[in-house]
């Protein structure tokens, strides 16, 4: 393996400007992980206009920092307030909060920080080894493979998320439909524009993302639960003792592995891996009843795994051009804005972006370790900021940011329209994530399906006879029929148990 | 790459079960625990909106699908050998129609909607300020609309005191001015 591009990547990261953006990114990530209300997706969406002004490498380094930084920050609220900032920190609450009640909040935070650091770093190392291989394998992919992969990606994200599958897939289809607005690249015909000049260019990704992820979340939070801010538990010594570290060692190792593997799967990622890692530790434990009452491993395992998964979820994006989750869809969009097409050519055509972003994560994780152990007190103090004050500031950043993209008020209205759409979707049980993801992938899926049809001379059976696209489409069918398959399997289980007994 | 099944023991597991470990379906129990916690955290959620809201949502989605079918068929579908501009949107719209019809029939018992309440009015007020800002911004610059928006959100939507509402909104707009106009030199429309 030629390592000179990797070393060049470090050169890119160590440029002062990129270091600064990495620092800004992880600080913002940590902050929004701690603060109630906005998640990393919403934050990245709101900050998209800023990425216009800075180069692609710096932009993606910053956005990536926000993403994995939020995983660190989310831990703090889980442990101290019993409020998981992120879905992937939900299981951390069980033992983290129990430890906090015993006055060992510091231990929990320290172990979580060390676990996160190890998980993140192991995952980056594995990413460095695996990503170029996958990208190399994918270089032969043609339009049919991309069409099939795109469909599989959209379907997986819609299926794995929480909430109703049917609704998620409907939302995804609406996203695909929205992506067709504007001039058709093949025939030049105007679709769904209704004579509007603004619509002829298609709908920009930025206002859609800002509205559906950013503004909708603010509007939704405005209505309900001005969550009374609890006062956080006291944080004592955050340096974990040797005994605690020894206890957590195995959990951290296994968590890294689980997180990396599950993180690669589209749609699975951080949430699933934190659950799986916790379950594994509980099952392996000699006294499983300790779990839920302040077991150090119960904090170490999920926090390690969710960070490892957050990192490895970059693999499908950087190597195949398929975002594994909603946040990756935003980073995909940010790359497109910069004129960079994520995909297997990325590693050869833009090695500075590819290795720069990957290597920046080493630095980011070190920065986060520093922020979450010696400086944790600063972030704990931030917990006292009231959401009522943050909301209008975020709204202003969103609207003024949207204006600056094209210097037009039209974009502000678009953000508002999609903000309302996102708000209504949430009220009626539809998730905005699949819509945004499908919107991002929409034109890629359409273009490659149409190119494939041209290649096949109009015979759709061609998709099935090519080995890779055929396999992927078979997976699509399995995923689509999964609930039925699962039901069938469930029905069989009792029989098996009876067999065992007799 | 089938969706990971949480009920399956993890394949990366290095060792077999320690002897005597209870053959519990841990992941399922855990998922249930996590769900319970999530539910507890969401206690503040308004009650679900009932079958009519579900039906309404499905009908709206259905209407979007019908709309898509109508518009895309006027664009021309072409043939598979030569797809017209309307073929792809037509196919998607048909899927939307099928799925939302299914949803209309099967989804009535779902409980994932939220009833609108008096506090939804807060969202409406917030929305009005947003539209106000969008329409005033090109006319009188960003300073006054931003100040008004901050103040309304702090004082009435966030129930801050008069004093802190005034202080924070003036401070925030001043900070925005320094950041956007003076430091980043972003061409925002300005009062002066």
UniProtKB/TrEMBL annotation, chain A:
Segments forming domain DUF112: 19-437
UniProt cross-references to InterPro entries, sorted A to Z: DUF112_TM
Origin: domain of life: Bacteria
UniProt keyword list: Membrane, Transmembrane, Transmembrane helix
Protein name as it appears in the record: Putative tricarboxylic transport membrane protein
Transmembrane segments: 18-38, 45-68, 112-139, 145-161, 168-186, 257-280, 317-340, 360-380, 412-428, 468-485
Entries under Pfam families matching the protein: TctA
TrEMBL record, chain B:
Transmembrane segments: 55-75, 87-107, 119-142, 162-184
Pfam families, per database record: TctB (PF07331)
All copies of domain DUF1468, residue ranges: 56-189
Keywords: Membrane, Transmembrane, Transmembrane helix
Residue ranges of coiled coil: none
Keyword check for Transport: no
Spans annotated as Disordered: 1-26
InterPro entries: DUF1468
Superkingdom in the source lineage: Bacteria
Bias-annotated ranges (Basic and acidic residues): 7-16
Protein name: Tripartite tricarboxylate transporter TctB family protein
């Amino acid at each position: 393996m030629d390592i000179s591009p990797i070393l060049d990547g470090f050169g890119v990261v160590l440029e002062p400007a990129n270091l600064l953006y990495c620092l800004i990114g992880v600080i913002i990530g940590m902050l929004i992980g701690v603060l109630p209300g906005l998640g990393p997706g919403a934050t990245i969406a709101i900050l998209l206009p800023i990425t216009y002004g800075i180069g692609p490498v710096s932009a993606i380094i910053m956005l990536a920092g926000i993403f994995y930084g939020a995983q660190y920050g989310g831990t703090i609220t889980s442990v101290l307030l019993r409020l998981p900032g992120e879905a992937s920190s939900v299981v951390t609450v069980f033992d983290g909060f129990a430890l906090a009640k015993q006055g060992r909040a510091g231990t929990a935070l320290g172990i979580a920080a060390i676990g996160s650091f190890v998980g993140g770093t192991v995952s980056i190392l594995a990413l460095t080894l695996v990503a170029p291989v996958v990208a190399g394998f994918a270089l032969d992919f043609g339009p049919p493979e991309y069409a099939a992969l795109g469909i599989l990606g959209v379907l997986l994200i819609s299926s794995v998320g929480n909430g109703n599958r049917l609704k998620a897939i409907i939302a995804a289809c609406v996203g695909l439909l929205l992506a067709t607005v504007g001039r058709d690249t093949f025939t030049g015909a105007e679709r769904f524009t209704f004579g509007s000049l603004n619509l002829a260019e298609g709908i920009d990704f930025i206002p859609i993302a800002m509205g559906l992820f950013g503004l909708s979340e603010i509007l939704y939070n405005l209505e309900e639960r001005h969550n009374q801010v609890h006062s956080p538990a006291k944080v004592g010594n955050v340096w974990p003792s040797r005994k605690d570290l020894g206890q957590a060692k195995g959990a951290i190792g296994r968590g890294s592995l689980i997180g990396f593997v599950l993180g690669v799967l589209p749609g699975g990622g951080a949430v699933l891996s934190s659950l799986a890692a916790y379950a594994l530790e509980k099952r392996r434990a000699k006294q499983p009843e300790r779990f839920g009452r302040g077991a150090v491993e119960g904090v170490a395992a999920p926090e390690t795994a969710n960070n490892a998964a957050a990192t490895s979820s970059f693999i499908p994006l950087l190597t195949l051009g398929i975002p594994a989750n909603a946040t990756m869809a935003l980073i995909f969009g940010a790359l497109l804005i910069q004129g960079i097409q994520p995909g297997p050519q990325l590693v050869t055509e833009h090695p500075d972006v590819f290795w720069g972003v990957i290597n920046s994560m080493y630095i980011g994780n070190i920065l986060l370790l520093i922020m979450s152990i010696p400086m944790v007190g600063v972030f704990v103090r931030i917990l006292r900021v009231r959401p009522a004050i943050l909301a209008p500031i975020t709204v202003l950043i969103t609207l003024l940011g949207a204006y600056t993209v094209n210097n037009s008020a039209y974009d502000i209205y678009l953000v508002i329209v999609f903000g309302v759409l996102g708000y209504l979707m949430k009220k009626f049980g539809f998730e905005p994530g699949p819509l945004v993801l499908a919107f991002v992938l929409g034109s890629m899926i359409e273009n490659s399906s149409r190119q494939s049809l041209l290649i096949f001379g109009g015979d759709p059976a061609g998709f099935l006879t090519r080995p890779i696209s055929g396999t992927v489409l078979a997976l699509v069918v399995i995923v689509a029929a999964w609930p039925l398959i699962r039901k069938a399997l469930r029905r069989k289980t009792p029989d098996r148990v009876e067999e065992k007994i007799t | 790459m089938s969706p990971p099944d949480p009920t399956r023991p993890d394949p990366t597991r290095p060792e077999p079960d320690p002897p005597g470990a209870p053959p519990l379906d841990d992941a399922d129990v855990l998922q249930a625990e996590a769900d319970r916690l999530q539910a507890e955290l969401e206690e503040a959620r308004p009650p679900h909106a009932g079958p009519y809201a579900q039906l309404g949502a499905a009908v709206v989605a259905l209407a979007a699908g019908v709309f898509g079918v109508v518009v895309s068929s006027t664009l021309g579908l072409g043939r598979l050998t030569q797809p017209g501009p309307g073929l792809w949107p037509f196919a998607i719209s048909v899927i939307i129609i099928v799925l939302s019809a299914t949803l209309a029939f099967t989804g009535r018992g779902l409980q994932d909607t939220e009833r609108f309440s008096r506090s939804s009015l807060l969202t409406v007020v917030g929305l009005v300020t947003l539209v106000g800002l969008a329409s005033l911004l090109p006319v009188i610059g960003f300073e006054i609309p931003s100040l008004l928006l901050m103040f309304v959100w702090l004082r009435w939507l966030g129930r801050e005191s008069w004093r802190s509402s005034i202080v924070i909104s003036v401070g925030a707009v001043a900070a925005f001015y320094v950041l956007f106009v003076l430091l980043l030199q972003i061409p925002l429309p300005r009062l002066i």
